[in-house]
Amino acid sequence: MGAFLTPTRMAKWQSLAERIVLRVKPWAFLWPPIAFAAGLGSFFLVDRQQWLGAALALGLLLAWGLMLSESLLSRVLRKRGQEGLPRMVTTFIAQMIHQETLFFTLPFILITTVWNSGQLIFALLVLAMAILSIVDPLYYKLAGRSRSLYFLFHALCVFLVLLVILPIMVHLTTGESLALALGLTVLIALPSFWHLVKARTLTRLCLFLLLLVSLALAGWVARVWVPPATLWMTGSALSPEFDTANRTPLGEMTLTPEALASRGLYVYTAIRAPRGLSETVHHVWHHNSQELDTVELDISGGREQGYRAWSHKNNFPQDPTGNWRVDIMTAGGQRLGLIRFVVAADSNEASVADGRIRASGMSRLHLGRFVAGRGESEEDSESEEGVESDESVENVSNEAR
C-alpha cells in the first residue's frame, strides 16, 4: 500500500483531479436538473420499469460509496504524513453528490407530501436544502466554516436517499424504511456532536448518548411530518353506497345525522405504491378532533390508478354533528392524506357525499400521462385486489377480490 501511494504518484493524481474539476465545474449547472429528471422518471417508471428505478437508485448508492471512499482515503494519507485530496476537489465532489441526492429525491417528496398538513414544513426544508446546494457561496461557506451543520446537512441527505431507495430496491415497508433511515442518520450525524465529548468524562459520554437517543426519539415522534416517499394517495371519495364488484363509490347523500344513521358512510381511497411493495394503511376516523375508530387495510403496489381500498362506517355517535376527519395513515404513522367533512342537522351546512372520486395532491396534474405506455384503460391494467372493511366497532372484515 505504501509503495503504491507514493508522494509522487499522489501528487500526479491530485493534479489530475484538480484539472478534471476545473473542466467539469463550468457545466455543473446541468447536474441538478438531470438529477431531478432522473428522480421524476424513477418515480413514475418504477412500477412499470422497475429495473430503471433500481438502476437509478443503485447509481446513487455507488456515488455515495465513492464519496465515503474519498473521505477514508484522505484520512489514511494524512496518517501517513501525506497530503489528502485538495479541499476544493473534495468539496466539489461532495456538492455534486448532495445535489444528486437532493434533486433525485425532491420529486418523491413533492409528490407524496400532504400539503395541508405538517408535511409542508418537511417539504420546504428539503427544497431549501436543494437550493442551498446549488448556491456556491452558501454551500462553500457551510462546508468551510460550519462543519457541525455541514455534517447534519450530509446526514439529512443520507436520510432522504434511504427513505426513497429502501422501498424500491429491497421492498421494505415505509415504516421499516423510516426506522432504518432514522437510525443510520443519527449515526452519521455523530461528528456534528462529537465536540461535546472532547473531555471524555463519563458524564459527558452519558450526556452524549442521551442526546443521540433524544434525537432518534424526536425524529420518530415527528414521523407524521415526513411523507412516505414512495407511497401516495391518488384519489378519494365519500359515498353512501359502494359497488364492490367494480370498486366504485355510488350515490349521493347530504351528511345529516338521520342520513348517517340510516345508510352509514363509505370512505374510498386509491393509493399508489411501487410494484412489489405491500403495506398496511389505516383509515382513522376522528369526530371533533377525537379519535373514534381505526380500519386496517392491506394494499399492494404496482397499479397506475392506485390500489383501491375503502372503509364503511355504520356506528356513529348519538350526536354525530360537527367536524369529521379521516386520516389515511401508514402502519408506521406517516400521513398519506386526509378527508374532511361536516355533519349538520341543517342540510345547507352539511357536506355532501356525492361519490365523486377527487384527485389528491400532485395527481391532479396527471403527470403519469406523459410517460410512454400509460394510456391503457383501467380494465387493461394489472389485476388488483380490493379490500372492504365494514368498520362499526362490531367488526372489520377483509375480502380479497
What does this structure look like?
- By secondary structure, the chain is an alpha+beta fold.
- It is 46% helix and 20% strand.
- The protein has 11 helices and 13 strands.
- The protein has helices spanning 7-24, 31-45, 50-79, 87-112, 119-134, 136-145, 147-169, 174-188, 190-193, 202-221, 257-263; strands spanning 232-239, 241-243, 248-250, 253-254, 265-272, 278-287, 290-300, 307-313, 322-330, 335-343, 352-353, 358-359, 387-391.
- The protein starts with 6 loop residues before the first helix and ends in a 10-residue tail after the last strand.
Q: Could you spell the SSE succession in H and E letters? A: HHHHHHHHHHEEEEHEEEEEEEEE
User: Whole-number average pLDDT?
Assistant: 76
What's the main sheet like?
5 strands, mixed
Overall geometry comes to: elongated
Radius of gyration: 25 Å
Summarize it.
By secondary structure, the protein is α+β, with helices and mostly antiparallel strands. It has helices spanning 7-24, 31-45, 50-79, 87-112, 119-134, 136-145, 147-169, 174-188, 190-193, 202-221, 257-263, and strands spanning 232-239, 241-243, 248-250, 253-254, 265-272, 278-287, 290-300, 307-313, 322-330, 335-343, 352-353, 358-359, 387-391. A hairpin with a 2-residue loop joins strand 6 (278-287) and strand 7.
